[in-house]
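Limitations

Structures in this collection are predictions, not experimental determinations, and the ligand pose is part of the prediction. Treat each record accordingly. The example that follows, with iron/sulfur cluster as the small molecule, is included so readers can see exactly what is and is not provided: the inputs are given verbatim, and the output is the predicted complex.
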Amino acid sequence: MPPKVKEESCTGCGRCEDICPAGVYELVDKKPNVKDPDECTECGACVDNCAVEAIVLE
Ligand code: SF4
Ligand code: SF4
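Predicted complex:
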């Protein structure tokens, strides 16, 4: 399953967008939007690099 971002936790740092090798995220109004969910390989990099644990992979 593609990632979900908990907006109430997200600080808008942009790290997930920077780090995702598949270009799944785009930042919109400083919040990550999952624009290409089908590209997600479930590598876990975004989850591991989010400092506030705002990303969930199910
Ligand atoms: S890395 Fe986490 S806090 Fe930063 S923009 Fe992404 S979801 Fe939000
Ligand atoms: S799990 Fe990997 S491929 Fe999927 S959104 Fe996160 S960094 Fe990108």
